[in-house]
Amino acid sequence: MDKIEQRLLEKIADLHKIPSGAFNLRKNGKTDTRTSTKDIEISPKTDKSGIDIFVKPNVKNKSVHIPVIITVGGLTDLVYNDFYIGENADVLIVAGCGIHNKTCNKSEHNGIHTFHIGKNAKVKYVEKHVGEGEGSGERVLNPVTKIFMRENSFMEMETLQLEGVSSTIRKTEAKLYQNASLHIQENILTTDSQTAKTLFKVELLGDSSSVEVVSHSVARDSSYQEFKSDLIGKNHCFGHVECDGILLDNARIVSVPKIDAIDSNASLIHEAAIGKIAGDELNKLMTLGLTQTEAENTIIQGFLLG
Amino acid sequence: MLEIKNLSYNVDEKDAQKDILKNVSLTFEDNKIYVITGPNGSGKSTLVKLIMGLLKASDGQILFDGKDITNLAINERANLGISYAFQQPVTFKGLKVRDLLDIASGEKNNVDKLCEYLSTVGLCAKDYINRPLDDKLSGGELKRIELAMVLARKTKVNIFDEPEAGIDLWSFDNLTNIFSSLNNCNIIVSHQKKILDIADEIILIKNGQLIAQGKPEEIYPLLEGNTCHRLRGENG
């Protein structure tokens, strides 16, 4: 693995070397390394590009890393990854994609991830996206995440896009059954003329199911972000969506909420706030000795990574 | 030493200028406690905001150890040695208590050091250092952390704008002990008798003007109205 690949892996998966657990590295549209364990089996799909990941029931405190790196221009990669999480399992799944494009041609990765989470299972899913490279070619990432959560299951999903992605359309769809609970934290920074669009559609089907979606976005320069959420309550359930955006320069953020309480016992909340950094926050940090620029950067870093 | 000379602040209001602070001159010496008091809306907070640079003076001059700081930015004044505790503590999304204390002290602090800062204001470090400084903390907790940030800076001049608000559950005695123990110039905006009592000098402001400056026993007879109620021992 060369230095660029190592750096991308560090950025998207905090990996300094190939981890000891279940692992699948996809590089420039092809599987590079794959390791299964006795608890977690990774097998290639036979009908299309991608892998199936099977986590056995009752497996606890194990992790799966499935990073993707692209270091060439002119590549459009489409991959289907399906996760089958056994009942009572408790796992960490680290995905993410890093693109280093030094050409003038577009590099694009479209990852379609589907999660089938068994009863009482617990999943933490972390996905980081990074773009870099001195070429003028676009770096495009369009992830689709489909989540099916069986009774009493729990999923925490953290997504982070901090730099260098020219455009992204992120779609997340979830169906939650009885007492299932989904927590999503999305943090996105866009700069220059980048665009980021995210769409969440969550159907709360089961009694006492719940979802929390928190989106923190920072848009700088002339970048554009769009946040759309669609919560549908079909039972006694709870849903909360919070979209906070910080605007700098000539950037624009659009938030479009939709909450639909089909069942009269559904309780759904949408909160959204978009604006510049509050003057009081800047003033406070300046009274502690930071310049205005340092104060802005400190506030943004805390907002996205805190 | 901090000197303000003929300081004024006015705002435009309905085609006319309104004077918030008029021609105020004061000298603040090192190692003394000054309490600025006066009725609500008299210009007390405006005066300390002008010193910190949170507001820009319409006229007059501010000198710090002989250097003219009237046109310096907030952070430049802060780095020369002025600190400021806000009346309404500012909250952040994502920044933790330890982040703010690190910024305030200018260094990465270990848990022992953070514990030292927070225990001074009656908080247990392990319960607080990794908590976000956001509105999930109570008003009293935010106020005490605000105080801890100023203490962590160890500056020559400390300004506290109504530090007592919301800290009733802790105690006034602890608060006044902190002020008494600080070996620098402390400028406190307050109505509270227990805080006025520890002043080396009280500065009475009314309608934007300096009415009197002197020792507590000299100023107490001049206090009236709202301030007087509080001097009779009522909180609020």
Q: Could you characterize the architecture of this molecule?
A:
The complex is a heterodimer of chains A (306) and B (236). Chain A is mainly β and 306 residues long. Chain A is built from 3 helices and 21 strands. Chain A has helices at residues 3-13, 279-287, 292-305; strands at 22-27, 30-35, 40-44, 50-55, 60-65, 68-70, 75-85, 90-100, 107-117, 122-132, 139-141, 144-149, 154-163, 167-176, 181-190, 195-204, 209-219, 224-233, 237-247, 252-261, 266-275. In chain A, helix 2 (279-287) crosses helix 3. The two termini of chain A are 32 Å apart. The mean pLDDT of chain A is 95. A 6-stranded mixed sheet of chain B has the order 6-7-8-3-9-10, with helices on both faces. A 4-stranded antiparallel sheet of chain B has the order 2-1-4-5, covered by helices on one side. In chain B, a hairpin with a 2-residue loop joins strand 4 and strand 5. The chains are: A mainly beta (306), B alpha/beta (236). Chains A and B meet through helix 2 and helix 3 of A and helix 2 and helix 3 of B.
Core attributes:
heterodimer; A: 306 residues; mainly beta; 2 domains; 11-stranded mixed beta sheet; 10-stranded mixed beta sheet; 21 strands; B: 236 residues; alpha/beta; Rossmann fold; 27% strand
Could you write a compact summary of the structure shown?
The complex is a heterodimer of chains A (306) and B (236). Chain A has helices spanning 3-13, 279-287, 292-305; strands at 22-27, 30-35, 40-44, 50-55, 60-65, 68-70, 75-85, 90-100, 107-117, 122-132, 139-141, 144-149, 154-163, 167-176, 181-190, 195-204, 209-219, 224-233, 237-247, 252-261, 266-275.
- Tell me which CATH architecture of chain B applies here: 3-Layer(aba) Sandwich
Approximate shape of chain A: globular
**C-alpha end-to-end distance of chain B:** 32 Å
- The proportion of residues forming helix of chain B, as a percent range, comes to 25-40%
Q: Compute the number of strand runs of chain A.
A: 21
Q: CATH homologous superfamily of chain B - what is it?
A: P-loop containing nucleotide triphosphate hydrolases
Q: Tell me the radius of gyration of chain A.
A: 20 Å
Question: Unreliable runs of chain A, pLDDT <50, ≥5 residues?
Answer: none
Mean pLDDT of chain A: 95
**Class from secondary-structure proportions of chain A:** mainly beta
